[in-house]
Design a protein that fits this description.
With 404 residues, the protein is an alpha+beta fold. 29% of the residues lie in helices and 27% in strands.
């Protein structure tokens, strides 16, 4: 593999390079957009668009922005007793461009109110932070301006405005891209019905309970109660992982379509041997016979949970992405429980919730269970979980109209 030539020098010597090329490279990193405002010495409001804003410190609370040294607006703002950082929403591109221009009165027609110290708070900004000046340092053709945060608030529930590769746009988290999905809307109705039952079960058994569903070939956590036992299983709402063997077996176990099992197996990133295929077929039969699902603790399962809890760390050098670890989990899923074994380390126990059409629409399962469980205890927890899931299924059938 050929490595492209570096544009810098380890020796510290200056290396000539094309500034337009440097700008293009930096353009691959998206930045949020803010408008910094203050009241100038003449008593009039002043503001400028800033695409380089960052948090600096939590203790004390400090933020920073980086205006051009040639900025006339910053020259007017620099000596103010307070300034306000206004974080823009994705529908405020026009406002952003206005404050980035050299227009005479940038505040003409702009709604704002004073912060506690008098700096302009733009009415439709997502959030704002009032700051007192902390330090100003020169950095090439820009300044580094730090401010001490004195007050702040969120004003709107809206996606932020971003600047990326020379243009403005927005950001939509992957889990939220499903927001307009009719399927997801239906599933959320089911979750609303299930939630009271989940809370009751979690309180009764002193365990956590979550509900997950399959959407677009991913398993997504749609609801979760608190985890009383040190977050043994991650339970972040919106968390998603690829629906591939052995995960999501309950959504296949009761699926009577002739190609359901084969389609699930095809999602495995690696070819499956006949022995593995037969093992999954036995596991699905075991789930149907029991009426519930079981996962025991393995080292692979623990690594998978660690990757889910902290993908940034897990996916770093020497780490793993959660989806990459899914094929390693089969050993602990749907095991046969020998009567002569006395203790099991259980990761979770699940049960299916059926929709009006008779298909499995939710997987509700317990997590944060006792460290060691006997076979009798497993059966007891599983029986209670299945009973709860059956009640949710009945409630859904009685409250949701069946599709003709």
């Amino acid at each position: 593999m050929m490595v492209p030539e570096s544009r810098g020098s380890d020796s510290g010597e200056s290396v000539a390079f094309d500034s337009s090329e440097f700008r293009a490279v930096m353009g691959h990193y998206p930045t949020g957009v803010t408008i910094v405002t203050a009241i100038g010495a003449d008593g009039a409001p002043v503001g400028l668009t800033i695409g380089s804003f960052s948090s600096v410190s939590l203790d004390p609370p400090l933020v920073a922005f980086y205006p051009q040294r040639t900025s006339g607006s910053f020259a007017r703002l620099r000596d103010a007793d307070a300034f306000c950082i206004n974080i823009l929403a994705d529908d405020q591109e026009e406002l952003c461009r206005n404050f980035a221009s050299r227009a005479g009165d940038k505040f003409a027609g702009v709604s704002w109110r004073p912060s506690p110290a008098g700096a302009p708070v733009l009415s439709n900004a997502i959030a704002w932070m009032e700051c007192s000046p902390h330090a100003v340092a020169e950095a090439g053709d820009h300044y580094i301006v730090t401010g001490a945060v004195r007050s702040f608030a969120v004003q709107r529930d809206r996606m932020p405005l971003l600047f990326f590769r020379g243009g403005y746009g927005s950001f939509l988290p992957r889990t939220l891209t499903l927001g307009s999905s009719r399927q997801l809307q239906t599933l959320l109705r089911y979750v609303d019905i299930a939630r009271p039952f989940m809370d009751t079960l979690a309180d009764r058994l002193e365990a956590g309970c979550l509900a997950a569903a399959v959407v677009d070939h991913d398993i997504i956590t749609l609801a979760s109660t608190s985890d009383p036992n040190s977050h043994l299983v991650p339970a972040a709402v919106g968390q998603r992982v690829a629906w591939r063997p052995p995960l999501g077996a309950m959504f296949v176990a009761w699926d009577e379509r002739p190609d359901a099992f084969e389609n699930w197996l095809r999602r495995s990133p690696e070819p499956l041997s006949q022995e593995q295929r037969s093992g999954y077929e036995v596991a699905l039969g075991r789930i149907r016979e029991r009426g519930w699902s079981l996962a025991l603790a393995t080292e692979e399962q623990k690594a998978f949970e660690k990757a889910l809890r902290d993908p940034a760390v897990a996916g770093g050098p020497g780490g793993y992405e959660p989806d990459d670890l899914v094929p390693t989990l089969h050993a602990g899923y749907e095991p046969a429980l020998a009567q002569n074994e006395t203790d099991f380390e259980v990761r979770h126990i699940g049960a299916p919730v059926f929709g009006p059409e008779g298909d499995v629409v939710l997987d509700v399962h317990l997590f944060g269970l006792p460290a060691q469980m006997s076979l009798e205890e497993i059966n007891a927890y599983a029986s209670i979980t299945r009973a709860m899931a059956d009640r949710v299924s009945e409630s859904i059938s009685s409250r949701v109209t069946r599709v003709p």
